[in-house]
Amino acid sequence: MKPGLKVTLEIEKKADYGYFLTDGESTILLHNSEIIEDISDREEVLVYLYVDHEERLAATMKMPKITEEVYDWVEVVDVVSGRGVYVDVGLSKDALVATEHLPPFESIWPKAGDKLYCMMKVTKYGRMFAKPAPEDVIKELFQPADQSLMNKELTGTVYRLIASGSFVISEEGIRGFIHPSQRKEEPRLGEQLKARVIAIKDDSSVNLSLLPRKQDSMSTDAEQIISYLRTRNGAMPFSDKSDPEDIKERFQMSKGAFKRALGHLMKQGKVRQEGSWTYEITKEK
Length: 285
Known about the structure:
Blueprint: E1 6-15, E2 18-22, E3 27-31, E4 44-51, E5 57-60, E6 72-80, E7 84-88, E8 95-98, E9 115-122, E10 128-132, H1 135-138, E11 153-162, E12 165-170, E13 175-178, E14 192-200, E15 206-209, H2 220-231, E16 235-236, H3 244-251, H4 255-267, E17 271-274, E18 277-280
Parallel strand pairs: 13-15
Antiparallel strand pairs: 1-2, 1-4, 2-3, 4-5, 6-7, 6-9, 7-8, 9-10, 11-12, 11-14, 12-13, 14-15, 16-18, 17-18
């Protein structure tokens, strides 16, 4: 028997503080605090093996929410500077998300109550480590965004942070991205937040904003244009001369609204036009 296994063991005998279980060779304690349903009339019981707080191999009827094969959302319960954060995996002991799987700055580490989508590995010594899911795993949760979400508010969780912005997955499974220009401060990994949809991208994900509407006097239409430009590295094949149907299909707005928003952006020095193309003007730092 070793930690991290689910096993069915025979009940050997009852004690005041629990039951002793056996696999025919070794004996292990199932403490009363680890019993979640009546087993007095059973001969066998399914348990999970773990190392308790006194470093002893023990049994529990509680099953972990996550394993090496199973990912799920787990809640952060404690933060230890320089070491990482602990998450509740459904057992009497919590699992550690080590610093190597967290942002380099502790200011954007998860806090207690935040959630991470993780799997768990158990060492031969019984230490439990949780690891946030990579993109190719969490993408299995993604759902396509509908055009009706434009300008609507989504509630979601930050699941990935990179230099160019924050990735969010909504409660419905919509994948969102928050550019640094669309926030006042960087959200934490695992933070649950509400953000406004400002663009729906070709891959059915969305761009989100944490800023109030019409931030810096920019209209919602203008925000959408800027957001789309940034998905194309600051250049788009649309201008005030573009076909109305093309504008409608891409931006879900009339040509008149598009021209007003574009004119507003040009007056602010945020974009420029060359022929049939529009370019974002970036200020050098």
